Amino acid sequence: MPAVLKATYIIAAQHYFSTMTKSAYAGSANQGSPPPIVFLNGYGQYMFQDVPVVVSSWSINLPSDPDYIQAATGTYAPTKCEISCSLKVAYSRSKTQTFSLQSFAAGKGGGFM
Q1: Taking the alpha carbons of 68, 73, 75, 81 in that order, is the dihedral positive or negative?
Q2: Element (H, E) at 38
Q3: Which of 22, 26, 49, 56 is the most exposed place for a label (fewest CB within 10 A)?
Q4: DSSP states of 41-64 as a string?
Q5: Nearest Cα to 56, choosing from 28, 29, 89?
Q6: Residue 20 near residue 36, CB atoms below 8 Å
Q7: Contact 13, 49 (CB under 8 A)
Q8: Pairing relationship of beta strands 76-78 and 38-42 according to DSSP bridges
Q9: Whole-angstrom distance, CA of residue 76 vs CA of residue 73
Q10: Rounded to an integer, what distance in angstroms lies between the CA atom of residue 94 and that of residue 107?
């Protein structure tokens, strides 16, 4: 991947995580709404498949001597960084009321952690 695209991706990831931790404030169509629920997917259907989560916090860690590259937007991004985020599971009340441990254990009730 060209350096410009990598830098643009890092900046986009930072913007995405910043957006996902915000509530809707004055002037928003959904004023007073909490941060949006997003879906975590990974490692196939028996690990994380469409798990509803809220991004509660995120951070970016840079090495002690970072180099920077210019993105397509003209801003700069580090060539190496580690982005981590904290997630909170956000199952709806109706999903938890209909959960059956017996069905889940038998492989019939997937999607609940």
Answers
A1: negative
A2: strand 38-42
A3: 26
A4: EESSTTTEEEEEEEEEEEEEE--S
A5: 89
A6: yes
A7: no
A8: unpaired
A9: 8
A10: 20
| Tokens found for residue 60 | 């970016």
In the structure, what pLDDT confidence band is assigned to residue 26 with cuts at 50, 70 and 90? confident
Amino acid at 93: R
- Give strand ranges (E) for 1-113: 38-42, 48-61, 68-70, 76-78, 82-89
Q: In the structure encoding, which two tokens stand for residue 40, read together?
A: 């975590």
Amino acid type, 78: P
In terms of Cβ atoms closer than 10 Å to its own Cβ (0-12, 13-18, 19+), residue 10 is buried
Query: Is the pLDDT confidence value at 111 over 90?
Result: no
Task: Report residue 62 as tokens.
Answer: 């840079």
Stretch 55-63: mean pLDDT: 94
Per DSSP, 24 falls in state P
Q: What is the per-residue pLDDT across 32-55, written as a single tens digit (0 to 9) for each?
A: 788 889 999 998 877 888 889 999
